[in-house]
Amino acid sequence: MSYTVPPTRTAAVVRQLRNEIVTGELPPGTLIKDAELAGRLGVSITPVREAIAQLSVEGLIDIAPNRTRHVTKVTQQNALELIDVMRVLACAGFEWGVHSLTETHIDLMRQRQKEFVESVRTGNVLAAGEAGADFSTIVIQASGNRELQAMLDLVVARTTRILAGSVDGLWHTWVTGHDDILRLLDAGDTAGALERYRQIFVDHRAEVERVLLDE
């Protein structure tokens, strides 16, 4: 996996805060203070405020009418709604792109799956989220619809937060689903691969609902 240095201080702060939120280092409900963050990260107030605004757009930080900011709390309802939105966007992109996949695309998907499985095994939530998302992104980009991918990117970090608390449980649906899709693609069964991709979201939603109810 390549590593890209953020081009600006704002981008660096966005990445740092996003990672802390996704991994649970900043738990849901945590009060976000500009000056405190700026001091901890060694930057001025401006990139911190710009980063908070960006993460608010992504749905990771809530900004109240009185301008106080908190890490967004994930309720059962908004978790399931988020999965439903991602299902619509991702399945549309997969359907549009699956017929355009080449052997090169499939080889790249296989590589990302290996990285995904290893990251899940070691409990590396951030790496697992990136590799798992890239598996789908390869297909979606094959469709040529950049706008769809941009919209889907907005929900990926929030979805990773749902998965973060249960690496051994909720990730399993994606690991086995991806393996099945690769086998179907190797056999030339694009229709079967699409149906299996859709089933991942059905199974994942049911698992998330079960986990949240247990909590």
TrEMBL record:
SUPFAM superfamilies linked: GntR ligand-binding domain-like, Winged helix' DNA-binding domain
Positions of the HTH gntR-type domain: 7-74
Keyword line: DNA-binding, Transcription, Transcription regulation
Database matches in Gene3D superfamilies: GntR ligand-binding domain-like (1.20.120.530), Winged helix-like DNA-binding domain superfamily/Winged helix DNA-binding domain (1.10.10.10)
Coiled coil: none
Organism: Actinoplanes digitatis
Name of this chain's protein: DNA-binding GntR family transcriptional regulator
Stored Pfam families: FCD (PF07729), GntR (PF00392)
Record-linked SMART domains: FCD, HTH_GNTR
Alphabetized GO MF terms: DNA binding; DNA-binding transcription factor activity
Domain of life assignment: Bacteria
